[in-house]
User: What shape does this take?
Amino acid sequence: MEQKKNAMKPKEIQDLIDYISNTGLAEVKIKTEEFELSVKKYADAATAAPAPQVITAAPAPVAAPVAAPAVAAAPSPAPSNLVEIKSPMIGTFYLTASPDAAPFVTEGGSISAGKTVCIIEAMKLFNEIESEISGKIVKILVANASPVEYDQPLFLVDPAG
Assistant: This one.
């Protein structure tokens, strides 16, 4: 069996698990063309600190990208007219491209679909996150340089704004 160049090594997986256990993250999912990895922390009543457990590590099927669902069925604390822009990954949230640069967006500012709203650093890669909607930023929900989880709300947007 030929090993692929980009496959994660056991040491890298263990380092990732150690990193996750030292953050406030409860769940992490990583999916590439080569593999899919899901790590969850479970609280055990017998121990003081929860320990991460690897749930799955299997080859990921190659498939066409699937659009994210537009609205979640679960109740949201946001008013009904506001739309959340959520994090598509875990990592560190940045409102600016560099420490001395202006923020991509500000509260009260207008955005358009396709405009970069923030950067999320994940595993030393800086990923520009673009808005899928147009409107006005009502609230920035995450502080600059803070860790974020997958599917965590980052911004509240008024599409009528």
